[in-house]
Amino acid sequence: MTENRPTEERGELRQDRRGPPRTPLWVKILGVIALVGIILATATLVLGIKHGPGLHGASLGVGVRRSIDDGRMVTAAAHVVAQRADRVVNGAAAQA
Amino acid sequence: MTLSPRTRKLVLSLHIALSVGWIGAIAAYLALDVTVWRSQDAGVLRAAYLGMGIIAGWVIVPLALAALMTGILVSVGTKWGLFRHWWVVISMVLTLAATLVLFAEVRTIDAYARIAADPSASADHLRALGGTLPHSIGGMVVLLVVLVLNVFKPPALTPYGWRKLNPAGSRSTAARP
C-alpha cells in the first residue's frame, strides 16, 4: 500500500529545498471557507446569535418563530401555550 | 508519538468506518430534509422532523466527534503529522468547522423534533418550520471535499513540515539577512 507512505517517500514531492514552499491556492481558498465556518458557528454557539430557518426565507408561525429565533430548545408545553395564544388573538381579531 | 503498524491499521480502519458512516448518516438526513422541503402532508412532515432529530442527535453528532478524534489520532500517530502537510491541516480544519456548524444546527433540529412530537402542533405550524437543507447540503459538500483530499493527498508541505524535512535548509534560511 504505497498510499499510506508520506508523499516525499514516494518521490512525488518536488519542493524547493532552498526555502519554505509557498502556500498553494487551494489551501488558501479552503482555509478561508473553513475559518469563516468556524467563526460563524462559534459566534452562534457562544454569543447566542439569532439563527434559524427565518434567515433562510421560511415564514414561521408566531409561537414557533419566537421559540426558534431565541435559539433555545422549545418545550412542547410552551408551544401549546403559544398556539393557544395565537388562537385567542385570531379569535379577538375576527370578532373585532 | 508513532503508532505501531497494527495499532495504526486498527485506528485507521476505525477512522474510515466512522467517517464514511458520517457521510452516510448525512445522506439519510438529506433525504428527510428534501422530504420536508417538498411535502405538504402533516403526517409526513411530523415523521420526517422526528427522524431528523433522531439521526442528528444519536448518529451524526457521535460520528462527527469520533471521526474528528480518530482523524487527529491517525495523523499524530503516523509520519504524516498534524501540521506537516496542508491536506492534513485543511482536512482537520474543515472537519472542525463542520462539527461546530453541526453543534449550532442541532439545537434547531432538536426544536423541530420537539414541536413535531407535540400532537397539538398543527399542520400549518409544521409546514412553516422549514428545513435545514442549506446546512445539510453544505455539510455533505465539506465532507466530500475532505474525502477527496484524504484520497489524493496533494503533495504540499506546510512551512513547519518543510523545516522538519529540511533541518539544514531551514537553518540556512534563518541565517540569511
Tell me the major beta sheet of chain A: none
* N-C termini distance of chain B: 35 Å
Kindly state the percentage of residues in helix of chain B: over 70%
Any idea what the radius of gyration of chain B is? 21 Å
Number of strands of chain A: 0
Strand content of chain B: under 5%
Shape of chain A: rod-shaped
Greatest interface: A-B, 54 and 52 residues
Largest sheet: number of strands, sense, barrel closure of chain B: none
Q: Number of helical runs of chain A?
A: 3
What integer value in Å does the Rg of chain A equal?
26 Å
State the oligomer: heterodimer
Summarize the structure.
Chain A is mostly helical and 96 residues long. In chain A, 53% of the residues lie in helices and 0% in strands. Chain B is built from 7 helices and no strands.
Q: What are the salient characteristics of this protein?
A:
heterodimer; A: 96 residues; mainly alpha; 3 helices; 0% strand; B: 177 residues
Secondary structure: elements and pairs:
The complex is a heterodimer of chains A (96) and B (177).
Chain A: H1 25-47, H2 62-69, H3 76-95
Helix pairs in contact in A: 2-3
Chain B: H1 5-38, H2 42-76, H3 86-117, H4 123-128, H5 133-152, H6 159-165, H7 167-175
Helix pairs in contact in B: 1-2, 1-5, 2-3, 3-5, 6-7
Task: Report on the architecture of this protein.
The complex is a heterodimer of chains A (about 100) and B (about 180). Chain A has about 100 residues and is mainly alpha-helical. Chain A is about 55% helix and about 0% strand. Chain A has helices spanning about 25-45, 60-70, 75-95. In chain A, helix 2 (about 60-70) crosses helix 3 (about 75-95). Chain A is rod-shaped. The model of chain A is unreliable at about 5-10 and about 55-75 (pLDDT under 50). Chain B is mainly alpha-helical. In chain B, about 80% of the residues lie in helices and about 0% in strands. Chain B has helices spanning about 5-40, 40-75, 85-115, 125-130, 135-150, 160-165, 165-175. In chain B, helix 1 (about 5-40) packs antiparallel against helix 2, helix 1 packs antiparallel against helix 5 (about 135-150) and helix 6 packs across helix 7. The two termini of chain B are about 35 Å apart.
